[in-house]
Design a protein that fits this description.
Length: 456
C-alpha cells in the first residue's frame, strides 16, 4: 500500500474549470472554488513470484457482461492467454462459472482482538471477499496485526486509520465505547453508561480526530498523516438545507454531527495533495450534495433511514447532484443493509427508508454513478449487503454481479483486479452454478484463487 500511495502522490489533474462553468449554468450546485481531484493512478498488478504456474482449463469465464469458454494460464500470479514455457500443474474448471473475487468497500472489521477477528477474516475468505476497505479503525491496533494482511495468500486491506469528525461527532461514540471495554457498544451508548461514553477521550488521536475548524486541520494534519492512512474518512452529517435549516435528531443521538463545510474542503484539498482518496459518511441528501460539491471520492452511505414520517424529501438526492457525481467519478457505497438493523421491529419506518433508497439507487444508476458493495458495522461481511441490495429489486442479477466483482477496483484504484483478462492478477472464484440464473450461486464456491495462490 505504501507503493500505491507513492504512485498516487503528486498526481493531480488540472482544475475543473469547464465542469464548474457547466455546474453554474445548470441546476447543479455551483463550485465555490476550483477542485484538484486525484488523477487516475497508473495501472499496476501485484505479481506473486512464488506461485506455481497453472493451466486453467475449461469452465466459462465472466467477461464483464456474459460467461464464455476460455483457457487461461496463471504465471507469477498473473493471468495470460498464451501458454507459458513451463506449466507446473493443471486446474480443471470444467462445469464451473469463473468470476473475479469480491470486496467489502465499507468495513469496520480486522483491527480488533485476534481471536474474534480471525472468524471475520475466515468469513471474508469463505465468501470470496479478498479485498477490504476499513473506514474507521484504531490505527495502533491495526498496525499491530497488519503483517497478517496484504500478501498473495491473504486478505488485502486498506484502512483510514481513524475518522475525522467534530467534537461530539459521529464515530466518537463507538470508538469510546470500545475503548472503555464495552462488548456491546450500542448498549453502552444508549444505556446508563451514555455520559461516560460521551465524555471519554481514550481513543482521540487514534480511532478518531476531532476537527472543529480549519485551524484544527492545519494543526493536526501532520499527525493524521503520521498514522499512515491509506485513505481519509470524514463525516458530513446535518448540513443545512437551502433555507439554512439543519435536521434535528433524537436527544440520545448526540453523535449525529459532522464536519463543517469549510473543514470538509480543507481536508479534501490536503488529502488530494497527499495522494489520498476521501470517503464520507453522509445521512441526508444535502450531506450527499456537500460531499459531491466539495470533491469527496467515495460516499459511504446512500443516505440514512427516514427517522420520522414526512421527511422523505430530505433524503431524495437531486438529479443534478447525481450527474455531477457521475462526471467526477464519485463511487457510492449504499450500505442499505444497515437500514434492516436500525429499523428492526418497525416495518413502516423500514418501508419509508427503502422507498427512498430504491428511488435514489435507480436514478444513481441511470446517471451512471458507480455503485460498490460494502456492509458497514463490525462482525458483518459484504454478502449481507449484496443480499440487501438484491432485496430492493432495483438492480438485476447482471448489474449486482458486476457491482460486487468490480468493488475491489474501488478499494485499490488502478490495480489490475476485478476483471479476468491478460495482465490482470490471477485472482478468481469458481462457482458451481450460474449466478445469472440464481444469485444464490455466489455462495456456492468450489475454488478460491488469489494471485495464483489456491486458498484452502
Amino acid at each position: 500500500m505504501t507503493t500505491t500511495r507513492a504512485m498516487l502522490n503528486g498526481a493531480l489533474l488540472a482544475c475543473l474549470t469547464t465542469a464548474a462553468a457547466r455546474a453554474q449554468s445548470s441546476s447543479r450546485p455551483a463550485l465555490r472554488a476550483p477542485l484538484r481531484p486525484l488523477a487516475a493512478p497508473p495501472a499496476y498488478a501485484r505479481e506473486n513470484p512464488d506461485a506455481r504456474s497453472y493451466a486453467l482449463v475449461g469452465g466459462v469465464w465472466w467477461d464483464g457482461a456474459r460467461f464464455a469458454p476460455r483457457t487461461f494460464y496463471a504465471v507469477r500470479g498473473l493471468l495470460q492467454s498464451a501458454r507459458p514455457a513451463r506449466v507446473d500443474s493443471m486446474i480443471d474448471l470444467v462445469g464451473l462459472y469463473v468470476i473475479p473475487p469480491f470486496g467489502d468497500a465499507h468495513s469496520h472489521n480486522l483491527s480488533f482482538a485476534r481471536a474474534r477477528m480471525d472468524s471475520v477474516r475466515d468469513a471474508y475468505l469463505r465468501e470470496g471477499s479478498f479485498y477490504v476497505q476499513v473506514l474507521g479503525n484504531s490505527a495502533s491496533r491495526l498496525a499491530a496485526i497488519r503483517d497478517r494482511y496484504n500478501t498473495p495468500c491473504a486478505l488485502d486491506v486498506v484502512a483510514a486509520n481513524g475518522i475525522l469528525t467534530p467534537t461530539d461527532g459521529h464515530g466518537i461514540e463507538v470508538a469510546e465505547a470500545l475503548a472503555l471495554g464495552f462488548r456491546d457498544p450500542w448498549a453502552a451508548i444508549y444505556g446508563p453508561s451514555a455520559d461516560s461514553v460521551r465524555h471519554s477521550r481514550l481513543a482521540d488521536g487514534d480511532q478518531y480526530w476531532r476537527l472543529d475548524s480549519v485551524a484544527d486541520v492545519a494543526a493536526k494534519w501532520p499527525r493524521i498523516l503520521a498514522a499512515h492512512p491509506d485513505l481519509i474518512k470524514i463525516t458530513i452529517i446535518g448540513s443545512p438545507d437551502a433555507d439554512g435549516r439543519a435536521p434535528t435528531w433524537p436527544a440520545r443521538m448526540w453523535f449525529m454531527r459532522g464536519l463543517g463545510e469549510p473543514v470538509v474542503r480543507e481536508v479534501v484539498t490536503r488529502a488530494h495533495a497527499a495522494g489520498l482518496r476521501v470517503a464520507a459518511h453522509v445521512e441526508t441528501a444535502r450531506d450527499f450534495e456537500v460531499a459531491v460539491r466539495d470533491g469527496v471520492d467515495v460516499i459511504a452511505h446512500m443516505l440514512g433511514p427516514d427517522f420520522r414520517p414526512g421527511e422523505a424529501r430530505a433524503y431524495r438526492i437531486d438529479d443534478g447532484v447525481m450527474q455531477l457525481a457521475a462526471e467526477r467519478g464519485v463511487v457510492v457505497v449504499p450500505t442499505v443493509a444497515v437500514t434492516l438493523d436500525v429499523t428492526a421491529g418497525d416495518p413502516e419506518r423500514l418501508a419509508r427508508a427503502q422507498d427512498a433508497q430504491r428511488d435514489n439507487l435507480r436514478r444513481l444508476v441511470q446517471h451512471g454513478v458507480r455503485i460498490a458493495v460494502g456492509r458497514d458495522e463490525v462482525w458483518h461481511t459484504a454478502r449481507e449487503e449484496f443480499d440487501a441490495l438484491h432485496g430492493l429489486g432495483v438492480l438485476d442479477p447482471r448489474a449486482l454481479l458486476t457491482a460486487w466483482t468490480e468493488t475491489p477496483r474501488t478499494i485499490f484504484p488502478g490495480r489490475r483486479i476485478g476483471r479476468l483478462a491478460d495482465g490482470y492478477e490471477a485472482s478468481f472464484l469458481a462457482l458451481r452454478r450460474d449466478p445469472l440464473a440464481d444469485l444464490d450461486a455466489v455462495g456456492d464456491v468450489a475454488l478460491r484463487v488469489k494471485q495464483g495462490c489456491v486458498l484452502q
